[in-house]
Structure formats: C-alpha cells, structure tokens
Amino acid sequence: MEQSQFSERLRQAMGKAHLKQADLVRMAAERGEKLGKSQLSQYVSGKVTPRREALGTLAGLLGVPAEWLAGQQDVAAAKPRVQVQVHTERERTMREFKKSSKLDHVLYDVRGPVVDEAARMEAEGERILKLNIGNPAPFGFRTPDEVVKDMRQQLTECEGYSDSRGLFSARKAIMQYSQVKGLPNVQMEHIYTGNGVSELIQLSMHALLDDGDEILIPSPDYPLWTACATLAGGHPVHYLCDEQADWYPDIADMESKISDRTKALVIINPNNPTGAVYPREALEQIVEVARRHQLMIFSDEIYDRLCMDGVEHVSIASLAPDLPCVTFSGLSKSHMIAGYRIGWMVLSGNIRCMNDFLLGVNMLSNMRLCSNVPAQSIVQTALGGYQSVEKYVRPGGRVCDQRDFVYRALNEIDGITAVKPKAAFYIFPKIDVKKFNIHDDEQFALDLLHEKKILVTRGGGFNWEQPDHFRVVYLPRMEVLAECMDDLADFLSTYHQD
Length: 498
Ligand code: PLP
Known about the structure:
The structure is a single chain. The chain is α/β, with parallel strands linked by helices and 498 residues long. The chain is 41% helix and 12% strand. It has helices at 3-16, 21-30, 37-44, 52-62, 66-69, 89-93, 113-123, 145-154, 168-180, 196-208, 224-231, 251-256, 280-293, 355-367, 373-376, 379-383, 389-393, 398-412, 433-436, 441-452, 478-494, and strands at 129-130, 191-194, 214-219, 235-242, 248-249, 262-268, 296-300, 324-330, 343-349, 416-417, 426-427, 430-431, 454-455, 457-458, 470-473. Strand 3 (214-219), helix 11 and strand 4 (235-242) form a beta-alpha-beta unit. Helix 10 (196-208) packs parallel to helix 11, helix 10 (196-208) packs across helix 14 and helix 18 runs parallel beside helix 21 (478-494). The protein is globular and about 75 Å long. The chain starts with a helix and ends with a helix. Bound molecules: pyridoxal-5'-phosphate (PLP). Pyridoxal-5'-phosphate is lined by residues 134, 196-198, 222, 268, 272, 300, 302, 330, 332, 338, 343.
C-alpha cells in the first residue's frame, strides 16, 4: 500500500463522513476495537499504513470498502458510502471531554507513538525485541531471594498506611546509606520514600516551581524530569552534555542558560541515556555554578550502584554542604525490582533556605498518604549486607559483558559511533545523518521496528534536539544482543531516508 496515497484516501473519507481523528478513536473504543490516537495520526500523516485488522476497523468506521481504502479498487468506482451511525439522543448531546491542556507540551516518548506501533504489531502476533525501557526483570535479572523472602514475611504487617514519609526502618536504612555516601547533616524527617523515584520527581517539581520558573535540565535527559517540570508549570531549560567529553555536562553552556528566573539545576548521575558517570572535578564545577547563582541542586542517582570499570560514584550533595540539595535514588535498578515501586529522596546541606519548599513537599507527601508499604518494608534488607548487583557489573558479569559487546558491535557498524558507558545499562549511539540522509529520528525508529522488529527510543525522546541519536537498552542476554546487532548492521547497510 503506497503511504501517501493511502493517507489521501483516508483524509478524503474522513472529510466526507465529517469525522475527525478524535471521533474515530472514540468510535473505535465504543465498538471495543483497537485504534490508538498516535497510531491514527501516523496513518493520517502518511508515516505508516495500517495492517489488515486496523484497515478493517477504519473502513468500518468510515463506511467505505476496505479494498478502496487500501487502494485495491478503482477510486472512481468506489465512492465512500454514506456513514450510517446510530447515536442515542444522550450521546448526541453529551459534550466532549478533552485531556487537560497542561499536557499539551509534555513529552514522554520512552512509552510514545513508536511503542504504540510496537504494541499494535505484537497484538497481530509479531515478536518484538524491546530495547526501549530499562526494565531488568523481563531479561532474566532476578530479585535477590532474601528481598522476596523478607517482603513475604512482613506482608501482613504492611496492611495499613505508613507515616507519609515512610516507615522508620526504611528511612533509617536510607539515612545510613546517605551517610556512607557523605551527604551532610541528613535528618530522618528530611527523607521521603516514594512509589519509585518517578513519583518523587513529580512531587518535588510541583512543590518547587511556580508558573514560568526555570529549571536547568540536561540534554539528553531522562525525559521524566522535563515532563514533570513542564506539568508543574515550570520552564525546563536544557544545558548540553558533551559527547566529545564523555558526555559530561558542558559547564559553560549550563552557566550561559541561567536567568533571573532559574531556581534549580538537575543532574542525572550516573546518566540515563548516556551511561556517563561524572568525575569529582566536574561535580565541583557544577557546585560552583549553583553556588554563584544560588540554585538548588537536584541529583538523580538511581544508577549509583551500577558503576563499572572501578569508577567511583560521588554524590554531588557530599560536595555542597552549604547548598540546598535533593538526592534521589531507589531499588528499581540495583535490586531488579522496578515493579515493586520504591524510591526515595533525601534533602541535605542548607536546609534552612529550603524550609518553605519543605512545607510544600510535606503537604504533597501527606496528600498522597504514603508510598507502597510492602516495598518500603524491604529497603533495610536491600541496602544492607551483600549487594547482588555487584556480580553483574564486574568484569565477567552480565551487565559488564553485555556493555562491552554492544559498545564494540555498535562501533563496528559503518555510520555509527558510541561513547563507552561507565554505568547503568544504556548506550546512546550517534548516527551519521549525512550517510543515511536521516532528518526524522522517529521515522528511523519506526523503520527499524517495521523492518527488523527491534524497538529502540529515538534521541528526541530524551530532549536531544538533533535527529542523530537513539538509545539502546543492553539488558538482553548476549545471544539476543548478538542477533540484534547483526540485524541493525544489516538494516543500516541499505537504509536511506527519503
Ligand atoms: N530516574 C532515572 C534516571 C531513570 O532512568 C528512571 C527509570 O528508568 C527513573 C528515575 C525512574 O525510576 P523508578 O522506577 O524509581 O520510578
């Protein structure tokens, strides 16, 4: 099916039936048929053509023959039929409920349109290799037995709400972990547990930002930071991380983006999507910038226990006892329990200047009552004693070996270069856009998905402006990665965007 002609016929039929995209999505849902919003918008824009099942759904909704829509009939011979719709009186008079306009500029492509397309393909029986999300469990990374055993043991004691900040035992363990990492003057009442770090990113952005307040966020970033700052009414301003300098933050760029509305800066260290770990000197420079411009520091350190090559992780808060710092971490990645939902944030350093922010955090924390109590109950077990993650990240361990393999394999592909990650399980390769004529990274991800059934996230999904990067999650086992890298090399050997 030729894409542009298909989209023309689709738009023609929609015009004749006086139906907008939102109408079709709603009508499909009412009929119990699958038709996603982004899926439809890709059909309308001519980016993709539907498979048989979706084609049938569209034809049925529009009252046109599927053959005509697919371009298999003479256009003149098959005029769209008149739409016959049965609406009850109540349906006709009911107003439309639109999503909040606050979401208009919120981007979260880690689960975006390309993922919708992958879901649609899966529903049609295709097998997709998902390298788009850092979810260790489906790739055979098991939760330590002791963690599961201890949660089971405590389950009956976790039936009620806990203190809104979290259980004493969990916060005590987090406090001790923070002390080991050198965070200054950490108090129990300044530690908050959350349903993953995700909840606390959202909570802290809402507690801090007034409409129009600016916050510095890295580019590329873990996009939840930009999304939550935007949703809170703030204005995320992106500073560059420099690929030529192992993806460390470009301090000059960071400082040049500060205005009199800038309230805070965010670092993600170790970094998702680049796998960079910032050395002490780089962190000291960032602290200097924050000090000069009186900024709060937010540091997302969820991968701090997944460092490789003997690299030491330094918490930026340990270098800034005079500044207001909020440090985030959790067990999703280090203990392979992303599904249990447990993370935390620790306020440290200059608490006095954060007193009012603290009131906001308390209010929002109280409003959500508490985080998942069974998951809090295993924080002490998880943070103490033997750390099973260490066996994955040392040489010979799965994460380390898979990193080495993917790094080598990607750099062997003509037109791809990648900086070696030092932590986590992501790599952010660069594509030679001239060689492949790439101008649209979403199209690149869609083409790879359609041709090789491999799902990656486009660079733009991480607030990276150029269409020249994508992120690979290297969690699958070596044999799977090997096949995947062969497929990618094969795909790129002929790929050229129109
Ligand atoms: N921060 C970063 C940098 C991440 O990569 C992720 C998840 O991928 C999160 C936070 C969210 O973690 P959680 O599962 O604790 O919500």
